[in-house]
Amino acid sequence: MIITLEGTTSAKISAELVRVRQSAGSPAQGMVLTLIIVCDESEFPSALEASMAAGHEHPSRILLVVTAAGRNAGLDAEVHIGEGTPGEVVVIRMRGAVATHPASVIRPLLLPDSPVVIWWPGKAAHNRAADELAQLAMRRMTDAAAFPRPLAALKDRARDYIAGDTDLSWTRLTPWRALLAAALDQYPAKIKSVSIESERNNPSADLLAAWLRTQLKVQVTGKVSDGPGLTAVRLSTAAGDIAITRPDGLLASYAVPGQPERLVALKRRNFTELLSEELRRMDPDQVYERTVKSLLNGEPKSASKPAAKKSAAKKATTRTRTAAKKTRTTAGSRS
Q1: Are 144 and 154 in contact (CB under 8 A)?
Q2: pTM here?
């Protein structure tokens, strides 16, 4: 059942949810969280499909906030509820001045006493600490792969990290990290170096390199491949390479020194699977936090430090020149 509300308000949307839920016999008590999705019209169809599919595992109130261009303020909504719809889905289209303060619309629609999660399938707010909708959530999901410069996007996420942040580029690595950890448990040799192969501008490869670098304390090099996504990881040991290669995005070849090569399932996952995984946990991902922050290693902490260093160097040079002048004066008086 889909009910269209044009020129509506939060109060009217909430009242309609109560009315339709009572008539459809779909109690709100069965829902475990509120999922806010912020997207534009081009991202809306895939976001709706993925969230509704994930809702079968995590019955939720899904609030899709679709931003639209336009000077005239307005608020339209579609309420999806009933057979075939897990939980409740509300598509909210905001225009004009209403879109500049979306939290005032969304806050009254949150399920009481339940977690709130927000997902940006496309470009996320640059500063989530100051974003109205981000402040409503305890978990915030972004996707660096949606940005033209994924690595720069990950570094931005690291600079303004808040407990509860994560990125789907990290979620895509879960099977890879599990397989690599199992390989090292099975063959606990000293790792000398690591090589990662992936298609160009792959943020998951950047995060995997950062994770392996911080965990193994070794040099990690990258190589561009034809993809799709990550295609190979090789851990170099004295006896040979521990290698995981996946050229087709479906099956991976798993090799450990001294053992026969095996095939393991390592398919690329869709948004529904990634979303379902992230909705299983509400606590902050501390491993992701350490990994994404390690991408900033080597960057200046602030813009003032280079100037401070320059000033200190200037003072040191002045002191050196003064000392040299005194030395020459003393030497002259002694000669």
Answers
A1: yes
A2: 0.84
